[in-house]
Specification:
5-stranded parallel sheet, 23% strand, Arc Repressor Mutant, subunit A, Rossmann fold, alpha/beta
Length: 228
């Protein structure tokens, strides 16, 4: 029993039941709400480790709720929505969502994404030590060094900046605009081809199989996620 609490804000009773069953079978405690108002009350009343949020709630807009949520809470948020348009995904991620999964979904993928988000806490504690470990890779921010299987990996300054930008928020889907602004500056936020090239470089240097990346995951039409 892992005793972590998940709050599900979803107005469809059948989906709430399916998600609750899947989460409880994995040992999570589940709280649920059919409205944003009830969900916000649950967040204030209980210690919640992760929020699963639908965007189409009867008492308000999920995107606006996300923006307000981020002024009060820092917990990971996974959006589970029928809205599949690229623009909707980007709006949700820019508003503060950490990940986005469209309906219909596979239960296994939902559980995997929940686990990935809940792994963020120990990674964040490692940030203070300026060291990150994932797979056979070690990144030392203070020394600006990277090793793989104990062997030094030489990254260019841009490659290292891109890696650092993704390490800051492991498990979170980072939009193209966010990464371009963080690494190259706001003048380059429309230059997606730069990003594709340098993500490819990181995969070549750090992945066992660059064609089937384990860590540097593409979220088609949205951005990238460092899955560690």
């Amino acid at each position: 029993m892992n005793e972590q609490t998940i709050l599900l804000i979803e107005d469809e009773a059948q989906i709430r039941r399916l998600v609750r069953t899947a989460m409880e079978e994995e040992g999570y405690r589940v709280r649920e709400s059919g409205t944003l108002k009830e969900g916000l009350a649950q967040l204030h009343a209980d210690a919640v480790h992760l929020l699963i949020l639908d965007l189409g709630l009867p008492d308000g807009d999920g995107i606006a709720f996300l923006r307000e949520l981020r002024t009060q809470f820092s917990l990971p948020v996974l959006v589970l929505s029928a809205r599949s348009a690229e623009g909707e995904k980007i709006r949700a991620l820019d508003a503060g969502a950490d990940d986005y999964l469209t309906k219909p979904y596979y239960t296994g993928e939902l559980l995997a994404r929940v686990r990935a988000q809940l792994r963020r806490a120990p990674q964040e504690s490692a940030t203070a030590e300026n060291r990150f470990h994932f797979g056979d890779i070690e990144v030392n921010l203070a020394q600006r060094s990277v090793t793989r299987k104990g062997i030094a990996v030489r990254l260019t300054p841009i490659e290292f900046r891109l890696l650092c930008a993704m390490l800051v928020e492991p498990g979170k889907v980072l939009t193209y605009r966010h990464l371009l602004s963080a690494v190259w500056g706001k003048a380059f936020v429309e230059s997606n081809h730069y990003l594709r090239i340098y993500v490819s470089h990181l995969r070549q240097k750090l992945e066992d199989d660059p064609a089937q990346p384990r860590f540097f995951v593409t979220e088609t039409g949205v951005g990238y996620r460092l899955d560690i």
